[in-house]
Amino acid sequence: MTPARPRAGLHLVIVPNWPSPAGAPSAAGQRAARLAVRRALAGLPGAAHARIELANAPGSAPVARVDGAADLVGVSITHSAGLAAACAWLAAPGYAAGIDIERVRPTGLAENTIAFTEPELALLAAAPEGAATAALAAWTVKEAVWKALWPAQPPAPGSIELRALSLAAGRALAEAGSGVRVHARVRRIDGPDGQYWLAVAQLGLSGVWRPVRCVRART
Amino acid sequence: MTRDEVFRAFETNLRAQLAQAGVANAGSLRILGSSTPRDLGGHSLAIMEAINLTARQLRVDLPREDILRTRTIDDVLNVFARALHLP
Fold first, then answer.
1. In whole numbers, what is the pLDDT of chain A averaged over residues?
2. Which residue of B has its CA nearest to A159?
3. How large is the ipTM?
4. Which chain A residues are Cβ-neighbours of B70 within 8 angstroms?
């Protein structure tokens, strides 16, 4: 299948998750990924009947193969408790995205000096929503940015440094160790078992933010 | 304190954090020294929280950069062992 007049956009699908053993791919996440890839491909010749395979090799980012081609669509997958989500995009040089969700729950993140640097903790402490709320949202952003940076990731999401965070505006700016700056959007969404933070990061050499087209699907 | 005791303290905290993250088999999950975050469901927040909780319980300061470079549970335990001057 050859790309023709690709639909610009980052296609995001959110689905209910169900418990899966640790270490096994989330079946709901895989489903969300297939749906997101379908939406990213929509409008391309042959897209309706394209065969989509997902691979998730250890130590690697997920790969979507479309009729055997691994370089047509990018995909990022996440799951947490009762929700799973994925985003997919038509591949373009220098462009990548990452997604993460976290169920809102009590954590000690606002005082976690491994997860955050001192300047980051100060940023969180100044958040109008409170440090605890901001810290979980900030971690979700870090994870999304870390995924978007594949394969040139720093060792761990904690290595990503948050430079700005506005939960009211739903925006964040993060920096990787190499000085690469990545913009992210973050918002609170409802799930079957409470609220979640959802973050999407986009890395683009052109600096263009692709419009996020989000749908929620049932099981 | 021994390395095994550090492992048990960390393991207890990790199981609790994984359960909070919605991992179905958090109580019976095999947590080995060779386990990576991916083996544990990719819940890096749960692992980060378990490390922080364990460090507080053991009253030890861990070098942040060393922890961020770890890949496996054994790597994490090595950082604890160095900080606690364990043999």
1. 89
2. B68
3. 0.89
4. 155-156
